[in-house]
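A note from the maintainers: we've had questions about how concatenated examples are separated. There is no special marker in the raw files; a new sequence line simply starts the next protein. For clarity in this README we add a label.
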Amino acid sequence: MKRILQNRLAKYLLLTFAITWSFWVADAVLVKATALKASDIVPMILFTLGGFGPTVAACFCLPGGFSWKKLGAFLKAHKKKRLWFLGLFPALVIVFFALNATGLIPTLPQSPAAILVTALITFLTAAVLYGGNEEWGWRGTMHPILAERLPAWIVPAIVGVVWVCWHIPLWFIEGDSHQSMSFLSFAILGMALSYWLSAVYDMTGSVLCCMALHGLVNTLMGLLTIESNSVFYWIGLAVLTAAAVCFSIYAHRKSAKLQ
C-alpha cells in the first residue's frame, strides 16, 4: 500500500509540473520574444491551459485508473454531517479580507447591481478555471496521499510548499497579475491558503467545497484593494491559519475514532 501511494504521488507531481510548466514557460517565452502581452488571447490560453496541470494529473491518478464514474464519485464525495463548516470558514475568510480592505478596486462599475454580477461571474470563473480547478490535484489527490502517513498539521505545509513552487514560472511572464505582489508575500499567503483549504477538505471531505473556497479567495483578492502591509493583516492571517490547523486536527481525531 505504501509503495502504491508513493507511486501515485510521484505520478501526480510529475504530470502536474510537466503540463503546467510546459505551457507557462511557453507563455513566458512568447511574451518575451514577441509584441504580445500577458493579457492577450494566445498568452491567456497558454496561462489557462497551464493552470489545468493539477486537474488533468488528478484524473490520471484516480485509484484504479480513470473512468467517468470514478471521476463523478471523486467530485461528489463529502462528509454529510460537517457541511456546516462550509458556511463557517468562508464567513471567517470574508471577514478577514473585508477588515483588511480599503475598498473596491477603482476599475469596478459603480452600480451595486453591476458589482454583484461582476462578483458572481468572477467567482464562478475563479472556482472553475482560475484556481478552484487546481483543487482536484492539491486537496483531492496530494493531500489524502500524504495524510495516510503524516500528522494533520504537516500535510498542508508540504502541499503548500509544492503549490507555491508550482507558481514560480508566473514571475517570468512579463505583466502577469501575480507580479502585483512580491514572491515572498505570495508564498506566505499561499502557505496560509494551503492550511485553510486543507481544513475545508479535512472537515468536509469535499473537493467541490475546496474549489468554492479557492474561488472565493481569488474573487476577494481580485475585487478588493487589500492593505497587506499592516500588522493587523498579518495577525489576522496567523489567527485564521491557526484556526484552520485546529479544525484539521479535530477532523483527523474524529476520523481516527471512527476507524
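[label: protein 2]
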Amino acid sequence: MMNTVKFKGTDIREKNFAMALKKNVNAYFKTNNISTKANAAMVVKTIVLIALYIAPFVLILSIPMSGLLALLCTVVMGIGVAGVGMGVMHDATHGAYSNSPWVNKLFAGTIYLLGSNSLNWKIQHNVLHHTYTNITGLDEDIDNKGPIRLSERMPYKKIYRFQYLYAVFFYGLMTLTMLTNDFIRLTKYSKMGLVGAQNKKLGSEFTKMLLRKTLYLIVIIGLPLWLTPFSIWQILLGFFVMHWVASIILSLVFQMAHVVEGTDQEGTGHDITSDWHVHQLKTTSDFAKSNKLLSWYVGGLNFQVEHHLFPTICHVHYKHLAPIVAETAREYNVPYHSHPSFRAALRSHFTKLKELGLK
C-alpha cells in the first residue's frame, strides 16, 4: 500500500478562498448558461488534431515518396499525436470532455495512438499527480528521469550538473520508454492498491495492455513494412522521430507548469499545512495565456492553475476562468504563478533545471 500525506490547512483565509473560488466559477457558468464540458470548437479541434496524426501516416502508406518527405511526415505525426494527447485525451481522461462516460472513455482511448495505456495514465496523472502535486515520492512527474533531477528533495549525483544542457534529448524518450515501462508501472500500481481502487484486476489489464501494444506496433511498423518500399531501419527511424518529437512537446509543456522558479516542492515526511486548493496554486504555474495558437494546440495546459483547480471542466473554458481565479487569489492573498510568454516559462524551467543540477 502507498504512503500518503494529508492536507491540514488551518488558515481560515485559505478555506474561505476555496469556497469563494468555487462560488465565483460556478456563477460564471450559471450566468452565461453554458456547459462546463466541450463545445463545438472542441469537437472541431478533436477532428483537426486526430487528422494531423493520421493523415501523414495514410500518405506514407499510399503515395510513393522520398525518404526525406516520409521523415517530415513522421515529424508532423509527432506534432499531431502530442496535440491529441494534450487537447483530446487529457480532457477525456478527466471526464471533462463530455457528460457521457462512454464519450470520455472513447476519447481517453486516443492514448493508444502513442502505444501507451489509459489506466496507467489515469492513475499516474489523475490520482497521483493531481492529488499530490509536486510532492516528492508521490507525484511521479517530478521523480528523477534517468540522468535528470526534477526535485530538490531527490538524491543528488554529479551527472545532474549539466542536465540543463542534455535534458531535451532525454525528454524525447518519454513515450518510447512508456512502451515497455507501462508493464512495470501497472504491476507497481497494483501492489500499491491503486489498480484495485479503479475496480480493475491486474491480470486482465496486463493482458489487454499487451494486446493493445502489439496491435499498435503491427499498425505503426508492420503496415509500412508491408505497403511501402522503405527498409526496416528507415521505418524504425521514422518511428523514433515521431515519438521523439511528441515526447519533447509533451514533456516541456508539463514541466513548464510545475518545475519552474517559484513553485513549491514538498516531501512525504509530513502532512501539508495548506488547504488543497492553495497547495495547487503554490505548486503550479500558468504561462503564455494570451497566446491563442499555443492555447489551442496545448489543450489549455498553459492554464495549468485553472486545470488543477477544476480538472473536470473542459479546457476550452480556462481562458475565461483565469481572470476569476487570479482575482480571487488576489482578494485572499493567495499566490498565483504565471509567466507572460512561452519563452519566459521555458527559460524559467531551464533555470530551475540548472539549480537542481547543483548540489
